[in-house]
Amino acid sequence: MSKDRQTEVEITVHAATYNLLRNLGLTTIFGNPGSTEQPFLKNFPKDFEYVLGLQEASVVAMADGFSQATKRPVLVNLHSCAGTGNAMCNMMTAYQNKTPLIITAGQQTREMILCDPYLTNRDETTLPRPWVKWAYQPVRAQDVPGAIMRAYAVALQPPAGPVYVSIPLDDWDQSALGEAVVRSVSSRYAPDPERVALFAERIQKSKNPVLVYGPEIERAGGWDAGIKFAERLKAPVYIAPLAERASFPQTHPQFRGMAPIAIGPLSEQLRGHDLIIVIGAQVFRYYPYIEGDYLPEGAKLLQVTNDPYDAAAAIVGESLLSDTKLALEAFIDAIPMVKSRPASAPSRTERNLPSPPNSPLTALEAFAALSELRPEDAILVNETASNYGDLLQFWPIVKPDSYYTFASGALGWGSPAAVGIAIAEKKMGKGRPVVAVIGDGALQYCVQDLYTAAQHRLQLIFIVPCNGEYAILKEFAILEKTPNVPALDLPGLDIVTTARAFGCTGVAANTVDGIKKAFAKALQTDGPTVIAIPIAHQERPLVAPVTDEEVSLAGVR
Ligand SMILES: Cc1ncc(C[n+]2csc(CCOP(=O)(O)OP(=O)(O)O)c2C)c(N)n1
Ligand SMILES: [Mg+2]
Fold this sequence. Notes:
This protein is of the alpha/beta class. The chain is built from 19 helices and 18 strands. The chain has a six-stranded parallel β-sheet. Helix 4 (56-70) packs parallel to helix 5, helix 7 (193-205) crosses helix 12 and helix 15 (414-428) packs parallel to helix 16. The longest helix has 18 residues, at 80-97. Thiamine diphosphate binds at residues 89, 384-387, 409-412, 439-442, 445, 467, 469-473.
């Protein structure tokens, strides 16, 4: 390159990177800043928005919620190793949620790294593993934009997930090689036609198949294709154990609830079926160990997933790698409509409520009161460990993109993710209200997200069932026969005052009427409300017993 030409195109790494981010649509950045990030953040462009989280675990989950709601990759900026350490738990969840996050972190000055100064991110590419798809620190400043482009490509390709780029703080003022090369990559791939034919033949030969639908269906935009396929097959549909998305309408006559979360109960529940067709899920996401056969006697299993890891990890069955929407469409083309099939009983939902109501209310009664005012277009975020089954009984999910929870079981994701989802709703101009039902224990893990919710004046309502305990761990203790575990009670939490301290509206509601009033008012409020509802202590089985009848929605308690 001639000297003249060089001068003509000379831009800094900083400018080239912001131009790249603009081109990739990564203009909303979630972060928490430190000295190692300030050279990146200096002269922050007006067409970008920085969403501040007060702790990095919140930052990552907010970005995760925002990414899922906008269906786009998102940029996160963390403070060197300190911020990464705090973020790690929700990076693990983002990895399992398969959310494409491009996580950047500042690093100490290249000039000085050898002498290990304050804030050095030692072994920077080891720290975030194994919960990123790729971790990299460019070998020279000029590679920063290219590394971010590559990070974007890695994050987006299936299965999507978080990636990590560590960037020394003295890189930003260096001369770039010119504008970055902007690329696009695939985010889905089609199934092998021969394997589709093989699966279609097996499905057609089955006398009594059952479908288990997983979160990949909804993420792939396959909601309608999933309904069409189920109706073509006239087979019952379960949602995969502990699925983080709904993927199928829970009021559909073929819906049978969530498949049980343990080996023995799951195969017991599916007894009588000769073929189990799992689409877009692990085989299977178990939780407590309850022994039994992986499959009911005489049953075979087929799995469709876009994740080679999940395909390899399946403990039984044959698998097909594909985007789930494309696979469902291929099955719909290949398999004729089944004329009729003896129908199993639809799931029964227990809706009998005591009169007068209990005092304090049970979680079921509280959710029943809320459901009376449920806005049709509301989005539900769920992190209420022991009351999950009760919640879904009174808040069945009927539309795509209206239900979110975590794939990992790591508390502290739901409330900040709800903030990210509500920011997305606001930015996209959809303005659907977000209702986040978060346990009184769970709320504490990322409680500072309430500050971000208040600052952005979000249409977000936190419902906190307050039992003053880690109820699900008490249920677990019974199942595992581990008496006298300390620290399962949480006396003295004042959730209303906490909410107000961060700038939210905080109210307590003890009665059916009180809940309805508080919820109605919150729906009209400009800004977030936290409604704390004292609920009764209940001891229920962690895994609902399987009876000969079809169990209700509450496959899990
Ligand atoms: C980050 C993290 N730490 C600890 C746990 C273990 N854990 C699982 S459930 C639970 C209690 C949840 O309590 P709460 O949110 O009040 O719900 P409840 O069981 O009372 O319905 C805990 C501590 C976890 N899952 N994640
Ligand atoms: Mg609790």
